[in-house]
Specification:
Radius of gyration: 20 Å
Number of domains: 1
Shape: globular
Number of helices: 17
Distance between the termini: 34 Å
Number of strands: 0
Helix content: over 70%
């Protein structure tokens, strides 16, 4: 996200973009392929920018903090009720505002709420990071990989959700069930309800909340998603410029993510032009029977945990020729990208935020817990998709 600077990401993104441009200039990437790539990806990247600005400014306006504090007030003084309400909020945030919003912006809010009520923050924090990934299967806007898949298949929000909803439902239920079992003692306690502090600028919070609320149905209306997201971003920029101008800065734009994604697009497209698809074909297999879908989903899971979910999707996309195989690949690269710290950029950003807040979770414990949930989630979601 734009508000969190990760120096290595900008460096890697810059190197990838330089290599990609070099491939284009030398002819290693055919110009026709590059033109087709640009036509396909510019709306996706524009949406990423607009959605990031919306999410960042909504956080500045206190929208997420207001929601989380109200959940604590209606949680009946029971940790498990509050946790389930946070689960619902995380799913809605992921589905409509993308996984990065949940992992990076919602996590610190729910962790602070848990700490404020003297509850164990780990089940809340793990719920946000796992559901940021596994919950990102329902709509095109939920994940950058989904946007790319939807641009390729031209399903639209209704067609995409019709294809993915069984797998999306399972991919939410399984991690929640695992967390409920692992943290059953932490969630069995009660807490004293503390009245939420008033937002410092209620007008800003209210208007920003209305903008985000109106954006949600617009994203599933069938209109190209970059249009309502750009309008919402422009409205919030104007609003914050009036109410809190110091919050506006160039870091709101996710420059590092843009460099990383654009460089990856060019490099992977070049590799495809020189035989990457043929190299991966024996691994990903073919067909829409359960075995064929399992191979492409498994390939996506392994590759995502090995090199990150976005390049994994781009590498395997030509082998997901049909909607069913594309759905299986998305199950692998989205719901399966949990185990290694680099499997999803959202995981690294999430852990950075936790550490900054004084919440300790070793990578060893995180990996062991994720090894428990990731294969189970992918397998059951794939069965639901089938």
């Amino acid at each position: 996200m734009g508000g969190l600077v990760v120096p290595w990401l900008g460096l890697v993104g810059g190197l990838l973009l330089a290599v990609g441009l070099g491939c284009l200039l030398t002819g290693a990437l055919p110009r026709d392929d590059a033109t087709a790539l640009a036509e396909r990806t510019w709306p996706v990247l524009l949406f990423v920018v607009a959605a990031t600005v919306v999410a960042e400014l909504a956080a500045v306006a206190g929208v997420f903090h207001w929601l989380a504090e109200r959940l604590a007030l209606v949680g009946l003084g029971r940790a498990w009720v509050l946790w389930l309400l946070v689960v619902v909020l995380a799913v809605v945030s992921t589905v409509f505002l993308s996984l990065d919003t949940t992992a990076v912006l919602l996590t610190p809010v729910v962790v602070l709420v848990a700490q404020h009520h003297r509850l164990d923050p780990l089940p809340f924090a793990l719920a946000t990071v796992w559901l940021a990934n596994t919950g990102s299967l329902l709509l095109p806007v939920s994940n950058l990989t989904n946007l790319l898949a939807d641009r390729r298949l031209d399903l639209g929000p209704a067609g995409f959700s019709s294809l993915m909803w069984p797998a999306a439902l399972v991919a939410v239920v399984v991690p929640v069930a695992v967390l409920a079992v692992v943290f059953r003692r932490s969630l069995a306690v009660r807490y004293e309800r503390v009245r939420a502090e008033a937002e410092p600028d209620r007008v800003l919070t209210l208007v920003a909340g209305v903008v985000v609320t109106l954006l949600v149905p617009a994203l599933v209306s069938g209109v190209p998603v970059w249009i309502p997201a750009s309008i919402a971003a422009a409205v919030l920029v104007l609003l914050v410029a009036v109410r809190r101008p110091a919050a506006l800065h160039l870091r709101l734009v996710p420059w590092q993510v843009l460099l990383f994604a654009a460089g990856l697009f060019l490099v992977v497209q070049t590799l495809h032009a020189h035989g990457l698809t043929d190299l991966l074909d024996p691994v990903a297999g073919g067909g829409e029977d359960l075995g064929g879908l399992a191979r492409v989903a498994g390939s996506g899971t392994v590759l995502a945990n090995g090199i990150d979910n976005l390049p994994a999707y781009l590498a395997l996309e030509p082998l997901a020729e049909t909607p069913a195989r594309t759905g299986a690949l998305l199950v692998g690269v989205n719901a399966g990208a949990l185990v290694t710290p680099w499997a999803s950029l959202a995981i690294l950003l999430w852990h950075h935020r936790l550490t900054a807040m004084g919440v300790r979770l070793s990578w060893r414990r995180y990996v062991l817990l994720s090894l428990l949930v990731a294969p189970l989630t992918v397998a059951l979601a794939l069965l639901a998709l089938r």
